[in-house]
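User: what does the whole thing look like in 3D?
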Amino acid sequence: MEQEGRDLLPDIISSLHGSFAPGAHSELRAQRSLARRVTLLGGNLVANARTDQQGVSARVYRDGVYGFASAADLNAQAAKKALEAATDNARFLETRVRPGRGALPPIATGSFPRQEDFSDPEQKRYLDFVKAVDDYIRAKYPDLTSRTVVATADSMEKQLLTSDGYAAHTLAPRSYVYVFLNSQTKDGMPVEVFKPVGGAGSFDARFTDPAALYPEVDLLYGHLMKKREAVFAEAGLKTCILSGELSGILAHEAVGHTVEADLVLGGSVAGPNLGKTVASPLVSMTDFAHTAFGQPAPLPVYVDDEGVLAEDAELIRNGVLTGFMVNRETGRHFSMKPRGNARAYAFSDEPLIRMRNTAVHPGPHTLQEMIASTEDGYYLMHTNNGQADTTGEFMFGVSLGYEIKEGRLGRAIHDTTISGVAFEMLKTVDMVSDTLTWSSSGFCGKKQMMPVGTGGPELRCQVMIGGK
Amino acid sequence: MSRELETARLALDALLEYGAQEASAQAQTSQKREFTIEGGRFTLLRTTLDHSLSLQALADRRRGVVSGNSFGEEAVRKAAEDCAASARAAQPDPAWELAKEGGGVFTDGAPEADLEQLFERTKELLDAIHREFPKIVVEQVGSEHVSTRGVYLNSHGVRYETLSGRYGLDLLFSGHEGEHSSSFNFTGVITDRLDRPFLEMGDLRQSLLDAENQIHTRRPEGKFEGRVIFTPACLGGMLGQLLSNYAADAVLLDGTSQWKDSLGKQVADKRLTLSASPRDPRVVCGERFTPEGFPSLDYDVIRDGVLRQFMLSAYAANKTGKTRAPNRSFALVMKPGDTPLSELIASTPRGLLVSRYSGGASNASGEFSGVAKNSFLIEDGKVGPAVSETMISGNLAGMLDRVAGISRETVEDGTGSLPWLAVDGIVISGK
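Assistant: Here's the predicted 3D structure for the full assembly of 899 residues, as structure tokens:
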């Protein structure tokens, strides 16, 4: 593949296996993270930025505590020093808190082959692409009050060496273009719609021709025009069809976080519900590692940052909560196999329990059937925000939705919020569509940022919706 | 010469050599020491050494920005070359500007870490929570010291040298009784001294006490318009949304701000004065200079209810013909009122005391609708049970017109100083 201005990480750590202290579980990681961003706001270039971060880190486990150290240098000497500092930090804690938890259970060892390299286009490529899309919008839709076009690309390249797990050299690039369109209602109230397009891969592999985006822009403009005539949703408990975008964020925020083992230990609602019915029998949910339903998952993870070979983590099967996501340490606590959920964002971050590609499984219905059989409700399509509690109480911002009246889509609704308690709301699911929609442009925030994939089919359920 | 100065000089010279007519280079070295506590026990100690290099090039009024973390000569020159190339590829815009005056040498906070004392203060906090708040489960704590040494140079001769250090504590927790639990909540402080327990800083004690009383909840009946008293922690988030919606770069540049023609006009209750004050002594290690190199000065965004200043960068100010904000921080300080919090509560017939708001990002209209988390019902002037699944909705700008009172008490968490703010006319929806 074409490569512009990018060199692979130099191999500075694979010869350091002998530096690991005996009796301690150790990880050594070299990492380079790239981010590129171009933003045209109303035709003004307000962001034109490139960021490169690189460094090494080491984490050492001793008897129940970890020491961690990192440095912003990519050489063997820095890696060795990080390892020494991490060992010292582990000792500092070990002598003060005397954890007495023993060694971690063994995991499979091996070496994962390096993935295909990706290209890193020069900034002009992003600028030209964004300008072409912006020119199209400006010329075709001059009545907009504002428009914003953003091109982003980020990537993580990691080389990992562990004392007792997998070694790996992984690359994870992703690229997106966002389009925001703004207008006003006849009363002068601002309305906005937006859509990200993209996924895994380098920018020039994903985006070869700006014209390929124009149909998406036209569709988005159509929604905006309908939103200019929007009505406020009627507040209360309503029958709603959540799009795949919303059911994906529900899977991630309202269920996924509660079944992360560190949050289970912190008292999340999932703890006492393992093995119990938490959803309609129509609902199954999995955190996919790299492949889902025979296709590549949007943001594949092959080996995690503890050196665990990644595999799928089943969370809900036919409505029953079947598992948590664990790292090596919490896997020991819950007697569950680690499946590759320990992920670190920056070189200076330690691995935390994180999701990868979390999705509700598709079901037997078509979206058309679901709308046609809904007398009075809402079809909620886009979200701009989502948060959930360890109790499973969730809130999602809805930035695009329509009324459903007598089995047909009606007027657009203004931005609103839906909320509920996941394990109660999921029991009300009575129809699940046969189409899986993935989203992958966002970051999950849990002490560190992390790119994650979320996905799902359309779900029909009862949910609280906010109104005027 | 420090390594930061050497790197900034190398980068600035390279930017000019590669064709920039104006340029800036900022080089920083930071060290973080951090204890992590999970499930109530110490699990990790971290030492992080990092660099940062931020470059800006203006070539024929075209701008490029590159940032990285390598101080190696080859990497710095490559970053400068990329930055100049990005600028050349950009469209020209005469609004970009770098400061032509300013500079200084500053030492702030506690540059040297006392790791033993940080460990002892953190352990003391965990022990105190265990002893005084038996229903609290500490989900996660991060206690850290961060020191930063930096140099900013630009091609107009502006030079800043800074050395700073601060301690920080973040606490994530919830209340539990059997299988019942409160919503999680979080709080934190930034400080430059460890001369008193963390529990006595910021709003830590009150937040923990509240969580113990939020385990059993009630969902209010129906929908009604009432008064909401926002705690300082929650108020900070609401003000952040409000200022982003009405006073920040993006909304003034695209003209969607509903305050775009309101400078000098009344936008809030006369009792309300809100400033961005990174130099306030209650703010720890606040901003010393803006990204364009101007010295940071405190200013009022709203004074006595009148909009005095937008929070604009030099670029957005030049673009819109308005005045540049004297700093670019969000170190918010609100002038306290003269009413005790107890009186604000006592004068509330029906409403909520809201500690956390979980809601969708509001758009330019300012309409908001979200869940009141970690919140209590107020009925007949008394704080009642905690609530669950209760939504609040209103308009961000409209809120400022319907201020019912501002508390005399404030919370200082090292990032600013805010009181409790009581607002009428918020729609509260229960079951």
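In plain terms: Chain B is about 25% helix and 40% strand. Residues 120 and 197 of chain B are 10 Å apart (CA to CA).
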